[in-house]
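Following up on my earlier message about arginine. Here are the inputs again, as you asked, copied directly from the submission form:
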Amino acid sequence: MTERIVLAYSGGLDTSVAIGWIGEATGAEVIAVAVDVGQGGESLETIRQRALGCGAVEAYVADARDEFANEYAMPTLKANALYQGHYPLVSAISRPVIVKHLVKAAREFGATTVAHGCTGKGNDQVRFEVGIQTLGPDLKCIAPVRDLALTRDKAIAFAEEKGLPIETTKKNPYSIDQNVWGRAVETGYLEDIWNAPTKDIYDYTATPEFPPAPDEVTITFEAGVPVAIDGVKHTPLQIIQEMNRRAGAQGVGRIDVVEDRLVGIKSREIYEAPGAMALITAHKHLEDVTIEREQARFKATVGQRWSELVYDGQWFSALKRSLDAFIEDTQKYVSGDIRMVLHGGQAIVNGRRSETSLYDFDLATYDTGDTFDQSMARGFIELWGMSSKVASGRDLRVQGK
Ligand code: ARG
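Thanks, got it. Here's what our run produced:
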């Protein structure tokens, strides 16, 4: 029987050429796998037809938008995950859901190998292959760009020579990856890190310099998950989409960073994640009201470690699973409403209410009705500073003077 390979297929030039390229290099039959994670653009049916037109023996297409929103974006929100304090893990969280479908397709069609279109310089190759190793340990991995010398020039020449049903003239100088959680743009002119991004780079966000009138929005959360906008119930997918639209119109969520890749390279990245950044801001502010202080401090550390694991391709790892359990436990009381104003690139919270709040007006108030006994503070401070006081006394004694 001819060997079969499932290919993570985007419908673009490189993966369209990869179908025939892999076939010629390995003699295997190629099955194209296209997964909708909310990247927009062409319909899955159009992509299926192109895959078949480019020589795939089968095409597997999946609308994974709700799955992605519920099982990948929501945990990212609960973790307030921002890699290096900036990046909401847009591409990093899409790889594991694509991996799930690749493994499923490999089983369905009897494939022995999984192929993807990543280069050998990025994080995504690691995320795909570590994921495959974990979910389908018997499957092999191959990356035509990295392993079969499929360069851009050769791809264009191959597509023209074979008359593949794909445009080869449209020249986009950037490498773009996008889904409903956000959009990543890199390479080209951006590789000079002193160059400011030009307007044409952005797609999810309008320029924040000339914003429309301020947009006030109320987001309702239940156990860490957004469930309604302005009192209207929605699914997580719908909420992300709606916040992309509203926060995007105000230019919220533009990010320009130099980031540490797993493979040891620093790289310039432009991200746009209007919905994700607005939701993370709202979620964090609700946590400030509902999570106990020590738990909250520790959760920030856990969230950072979680972000690093996910960035580093360890979505399916044991540690990530353990951290998920901790994070999930902290979300029990993260319920209530956050009101925020979206305007001119900013999402600023100006109101919060929660049935499970830890904010105690009577303890906090400086007005009458204060229940806080201020006389307790003197003794507390005395003890709190005691060990430092003893240590500095010793320093003075030993150093003389
Ligand atoms: N640097 C980001 C990451 O590693 C984004 C990668 C996006 N991929 C792309 N082809 N533009 O998650």
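One observation from looking it over: The chain has a mean pLDDT of 97. Hope that helps, and feel free to reply on this thread.
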